[in-house]
Amino acid sequence: MKFNILICKLMNCLFRKPTVCGRQSREDYAKWEFDIAPSNLESFKPYSSFDAKIILDVGCGMGGKSLYYAMNGAKEVFALDTDFDRVKTGIKTAKLKNIDNLHFVTADAGKLPFKSNSFDLVMMNDCIEHLFNLEESLSECYRILKDTGIILANWMSYQSPFGAHLYDYVYTPWCHLVFSEKALVKIWKEEFSKEYESGKNLSEQLSPADICNTMTIRELQHLNKITAKEFRETVQKTKFNMLKCDLITTYPFKDLPFFGKFGYEFQMFAKRLPLDLREYFAGSIITVLKK
After folding, report:
1. What is 252-282 written as a DSSP string?
2. By three-state DSSP, how is residue 103 classified?
3. What pTM value is reported for the model?
4. Nearest 5°: phi and psi at 108?
């Protein structure tokens, strides 16, 4: 255990800590969500038009992306999250901007409080990997979508370089596939506690007391640890047709001396790999499902 922790910390020194935006406050996070919404939508082309559509944003977080949809062509947007404190932030932001076509709902995606055939589009940004009832949630989305409705989802496979979502404090790629989970959780909790005690607020929902008994990555980051293969198998159990499933390659060695210059070659190498191997090098997976 101690050796595991020592090696992991030494490896961490080789990689630059990523810039994690919006951690200063809930409002900052909502602004970051709003700012990245256009680039997120670009990745879904040609399916990303939402003019005059009724949209459900599942796992809306602080509601920044939901706000963007409401202000840029959507007829109505319903933003859904299980965390009421996050929803409250979204409501506050929408009121400040006098947006009346954006509605926030606290509910579970596995039991949506909406009528059947009532939405044109479901957005699921960074949500798939956090749903412990994924099959039920997709089935519910199928029910509430209109006959030609679609889901646009971008998410991260657990096999990807940063699939454990520990990058606030453990930013060695594939750390969760190399080091013991117990060691990683211990390091994350120690580093989080240090920054929390120093007055830095890098999490919108946690304090050291909240995570003192947390022992697994699943608990710490609310992850279902889903892979691309498991996702495809889950979709096959529903009635959805998969129109798109693109793996967006990331180059985790860009900050390393010497290796940093081989980004293009790495991208070309990754593209030639079979799908199940390519996901180990994917920063995100872009998925479009059609009813």
Report:
1. TTTTSTTGGGGHHHHHHHHHTS-HHHHGGGE
2. strand
3. 0.92
4. -90, 135
Helices 26-42 and 64-71: angle between axes, nearest 10 degrees: 60
- Angle, in degrees to the nearest 10, between helices 181-197 and 2-12: 60
Quickly list DSSP for 53-71: -EEEEET-TTSHHHHHHHH
In this predicted model, what pLDDT tens digit does every residue of 127-162 receive, in sequence order? Answer: 999 999 999 999 999 999 999 999 999 999 999 999
Which domains are delineated in the chain? 1-291 (3.40.50.150)
- The per-type count for the chain, helices as H runs and strands as E runs, is 12, 7
Taking alpha carbons only, the member of 94, 90, 108, 103 closest to residue 26 is: 90
* DSSP assigned state of 128: G
- For residue 226, give Cα distances in angstroms to 37, 156, 178, 230, 287: 24, 8, 18, 6, 14
Tokens of 173: 């790629």
In the numeric block, the tokens 């096959």 are attached to: 236
d(CA 62, CA 30): 5
- Give phi and psi for 116, each to the nearest 5: -65, 150
Burial per residue of 202-215, b for 16 or more beta-carbon CB atoms within 10 angstroms, e otherwise: ebbeeeeeebeeee
